[in-house]
Amino acid sequence: MRRFDVELLPEAIDDANQHADHIALDSVESAITWLDGLFEAVQTLALMPRRCPLAPGDLSHGREMRVMLYYSHHIYYVVEPGRVVVVHIRHAARDVWRPAQPTAAAARKRQAPPSRMAARPPADAQATPPKNPGTRPRRRRAS
Question: Which residue in 38, 50, 51, 102 is deepest, having the highest Cβ count within 10 Å?
Fold first, then answer.
């Protein structure tokens, strides 16, 4: 059986670390276990990388993008000659991931200087304390 090399792009490693950091807020041990299991699952792609379905929609930009489910996370990867490249890891509850496709408008937008006025509140706006979403109004008892 042919064996593929498995490579994780730096963005995919950052995604995995961010998800592990989020899990660590509840339990560091669970985060370590999840991260170890994720990397073990990714390494199983070395033997049968085409066993997972194609990613939904046109995500590939001319490549065959596939998605592997690991608990509640989607692992997006591409099968290339002799190797598997993991490009992104995303929680399944989020919208379907769509890789950025560079356009001329996006390039111009990135070069535009940031506007300082957009970050400021209007001068006549009054600061109001935020409502506590955890409290409910009390019901009055019927007399």
Answer: 38
Residue-wise pLDDT for 112-134, tens only, equals 444 443 444 445 545 454 454 45
> What is the value of pTM for the model shown?
0.63
Taking each helix axis as running N to C, give the angle between helix 28-43 and helix 10-24, from 0 to 180 degrees, rounded to the nearest 10. Answer: 150
Domain boundaries, the chain: 5-91
Protein fold of 5-91: YaeB-like fold (3.30.2310)
